[in-house]
């Protein structure tokens, strides 16, 4: 599996869209790994995990061929994860060439995500039942694995947006497992229990609050430590498991190098935009 972090910032981006704070100014000045677009990932070039408002810039900066993407799995409906208005560009009205096999995009998510998609359609087309739809929506249920290309995907309940079924995702390919764990605070018992005795090769965690001791609907480093301890205790990981932190907010999270310095002794890896993880 090839997993690429397209964005590693919180909903407002880092530097934040309208912010003049010192951190945002420093991030602008230093650039590089301090620049964090809204979160999401590309897996094996044909599977997208979330669709952020920065997807067009992602296409440009990473030279992505998004026409290859047939499947999109969505964590929840927050606008940094599901920019439905941008997805309207998948309608044939907006392109002149796309391989026949790629014309339909399959979107997997919860009921609120589906309604968000329909609402964007109604805005653009006056109806949400367009002829020859360019997408097909699949409502997903937690704990029910399904296969997309070479990857088996399982949605697990997140501890995040309580008025909808927010998910994190377990991704499996060739006996390797990648747990994509944002947006979420400390996982619920049912999510931990599902993962019991399943060896995870990579665990990617929500570290929105950076080094702060905080964990509600997101986490800081202390929440990430608690999750790691629990996964170790229940035989879901061991010393070989990589722990990667992501979804950083300018409100709480330090600049990239400071995060690295303060977490490397504990073997946490700080993600950055464009970072790739390979699992054989
Ligand atoms: Zn988010
Ligand atoms: Zn700021
Ligand atoms: Zn969110």
TrEMBL record:
<dbReference type="Pfam" id="PF12706">
    <property type="entry name" value="Lactamase_B_2"/>
</dbReference>
<keyword id="KW-0378">Hydrolase</keyword>
<dbReference type="GO" id="GO:0042781">
    <property type="term" value="F:3'-tRNA processing endoribonuclease activity"/>
</dbReference>
<dbReference type="InterPro" id="IPR001279">
    <property type="entry name" value="Metallo-B-lactamas"/>
</dbReference>
<feature type="domain" description="Metallo-beta-lactamase">
    <location>
        <begin position="37"/>
        <end position="247"/>
    </location>
</feature>
<protein>
    <submittedName>
        <fullName>Ribonuclease BN</fullName>
        <ecNumber>3.1.26.11</ecNumber>
    </submittedName>
</protein>
<dbReference type="InterPro" id="IPR036866">
    <property type="entry name" value="RibonucZ/Hydroxyglut_hydro"/>
</dbReference>
<comment type="function">
    <text>Counteracts the endogenous Pycsar antiviral defense system. Phosphodiesterase that enables metal-dependent hydrolysis of host cyclic nucleotide Pycsar defense signals such as cCMP and cUMP.</text>
</comment>
